[in-house]
Amino acid sequence: MTRLIGAVSGPLVTFIFAAVIAGGIHASEGVQPADASLAESNLIEKLRKDADQGNEKAQYALGCCYNGDHGFPRDSVEAAKWWGKAASKGLADAQYCLGLSYYLGQGVPKDASEAANWWKKAAEQDHADAQYFLGLSYSAGRGVPKSPSLAIYWLRKSANLGNQAALDALRRADPLQG
Length: 178
Description:
69% of the residues lie in helices and 0% in strands. It is mostly helical. The longest helix has 20 residues, at 33-52.
């Protein structure tokens, strides 16, 4: 469930997250591991403070950190918690990730219906990966009623945004569709 932090913006969140990522670079350039660990800890504290104050981009980024991204220890419960906070504020990337959490049962109870609900929210904001998974859900009838027409609709929207997996799924479903 590794996801790049493309949705993170804003000066402080971007700075903090870039510095956290760069911490690994500095460590390899001769900074003592303890120094890098201390700097990383301070940056995560700043990110957590922004997240606690309601910044949905910081909440999403913190969820990604707890997902094990960028070498952080994985804690699925914390990842889902922070993604849930950002998702409830409408952040499409967080909605997509929370949907994956529910689908896989990582940090939250496994629930295909809840996964599809979150994917639909993100898909309606033109999130190509969410559209793809929502299309697959409609195709298989997982978490939503089986609907070939809705499956094709969402897969086509995803493919139009450049999702190759969606295009491949459309071709498998009907070679004339892709």
